[in-house]
Batch of 2 targets.
Target 1
Amino acid sequence: MSESSFDIVVIGGGPGGYPAAIRASQLGKQVALVEREHLGGICLNWGCIPTKALLRASELFHTLQRLDEFGLSAKDPHFDIDKVVRRSRRISKRLAAGVKHLLKKNKVTVFDGHGRLAGPGRVRVEREGEQPVELAAENIVIASGARARTVPGLEPDGELVWTYKEAMVPSLMPERLLVVGSGAIGVEFASFYGDLGAEVTLVEMLPQILPVEDPEIAALARKQFEKNGIQIRTSATVSALERENGQVTAQLDLGEGESESITVDRVIVAAGIVGNVEELGLEGTGVQVEKTHIVVDAWQRTGEPSVYAIGDVVGPPWLAHKASHEGVLCAEHIAGVEGVHPIDTLRIPGCTYCRPQIASVGMSEARAAEEGRELRVGRFPLLANGKALALGESEGLVKTVFDAATGELLGAHMVGPEVTEMIQGFVVAMNLETTEAELMQSVFPHPTLSEAMHESVLAAYGRALNI
């Protein structure tokens, strides 16, 4: 067994692991990264990036169905699902190659294989058919990520019942589709397949779709999804699946003794994630695991000295950009960089790239009210925004929540076109501790969708100009 020594060994090369390795190297550390499958992780290879490529295709196809509204015409617009998928895979492959280049450029040593703790300050790297390699490290960062949660009775088979992986490389375009779970993954796939013509039913066990979003925004999104043709069942569960003759018959429990049976071509199960904590050598260490996720403090430290954890294997929100920030925070803390601050998860934006898009940061109106604060809430509908009307995408809302006593921006919530690009304006405002006064005095360009952000702030204080 060969051995090498490093200042830091990172286990996992996803959106948390590779930024941690690069930042640590920039700070003068000798760094190794261990990755068992794909550099870039699930996000780059099977999540964030390829799904956005798929959604771009479905959005364009939806626009082609509306050409007459814009005075345009085209003969027989259609799609080739194989070509759509191949484009998304090409983009992922290109970015994965970019991650490999970045690691090499930053002098990070990459080990292919499965990494596990092998005693204090030691990581064992195993690869089938090869001798194990043992690495010595002053600090170890676990960035092993997460995987789709398996629901009893709804176990994926890769053919009729899909996880997100099969849904991104479909063997056929289903005419009828059942999506179980209405979080970001579920609604994005419902939107993608719905815009390509599938009859989609979306099932959510909670009373609200998009459970982490402000209820008012979720309700508006639901209304638009249903207008787009998606059938939605909330407060509902799938009690059984019967797979036969290339189809699936699902029994839905709708509550209060009601039930429904639907037959579909495929089922996508998007019912959350579980952390990849198995086979990491955590047994006998001080690393604590709760509900499949590693427990860490504000600096990403586990209960085991010199062992850190970041990304989806730790607590929510389970977002790639949060993982990247944790990776940088972790590397800087290890290196002793001054001025490093723990992450305030309330200031991390959440984005869902369905049609219409949803984006938010901070507290919902309900959560802010639960804290006993007196609130000022502003709302501005995109129906009153000139740019949205010109785009032909005027269904949406920008909502802002302020502390009435201090003017602090507590939360911002949006549904509509390109709101995932707009939310960062409110993120910056919150991190700069901007009040309503600075936001109202800021000049927003015209005509833009971002004007709706300004008008929402004005509306919270009775000063809206265009509603």
Note: The longest strand covers residues 2-11.
Target 2
Amino acid sequence: MKVYLDYAATTPTDPRVLKEMLPFFNKKFGNTMSLHSFGREAKLAAEEAREKVASLMNAEASEIIFTGSATESDNFALKGIAFANKEKGKHIIVSSIEHHSVLDTAKWLEKQGFEVTYLPVDKYGLVNPSEVEKSIRKDTILVSIMHANNEIGTIEPIEEIGKICSEHGVYFHTDAAQSYGKIPVDVKKMNVDLLTASAHKIYGPKGVGLLYLRKGVKIEPLLHGGGHEFGLRSSTLNLPGIVGFGAAAEIAKKEMEKEGKRIEKLRRRLEKGVLKIENSHLNGHLEKRLPNIANFWFDFIEGESLIMSLDIKGIAASTGSACSSESLEPSHVLLAIGLKHHQAHGSLRLSLGRWTKKEEIDYVLKVLPEVVENLRKISF
């Protein structure tokens, strides 16, 4: 049996999404900046998609900037705000469990003369809003806290943090790549100024993301050229990808609630079964978490060996975020929630999705205990 349980890394493109995309490769292939009928047709398709992705987060279509990925959106948010607002100050706040596209950008900005505060999290991976407030200074220009963590699934108190930032006149960005399309995302309720999302996390194509930019936010473009995307992101639009993103968002809006309950039920079944294994532990918050991510660590086991052993049995999983899976360093997220190096090295992330079935979960629960037992025999 082949079982894919790495949906947090990427999702397969939904056949319904692919069907919407296909005409835009070779029939409706115009450039959105062209004035002729082909260009107008392309522009209309892009604007319809913009409406759809905006609707899923209760935003205005004019507040959506299409990008090439969530990584680009995070870079755009941090660098764009930093350079546009450096006269006000050069202090930025991020959490210690952000995706590398935020953390590495923050580290790069430090080399450019900006100062970054890295907030700690508790054992569940939660940022304390009062810690955010304590860290805000007169020269603070941006706070960036992810909506939900990509490794352990913990959902942050974004609404509360956003309110604090608003009261202090500080821009607030959230990376919602893992939450958008899976749980309700409302930019107005969340009090966010900028928000990152990605198509390939919600059964859309790879190579297209977005940055929500609240009206009036002062930001500097990263890409200059033809003045695309309201003059904020020059580059010929990836029209098939954008159409696919719109289709994926539209499907998510209709199916998210029902699908979320189905997946959460399967995840709880999975967690209950896995935790029957001796010396197994669950990472992340027990309730404030995404419906589709389960993260464990096992005593006396090495994560990479666990992943390879499961792969031989036909089960695709991961030992951390996909973007750092080739690294031998333990997950920065797991270290931040208090795990020791050897504990973090024994981690396993299983993430469920649209095509996960009960039979697949039961297969994992049959195979995993055997794999863990065999690896523990080898390690002693």
Note: The first helix runs from residue 15 to 21.
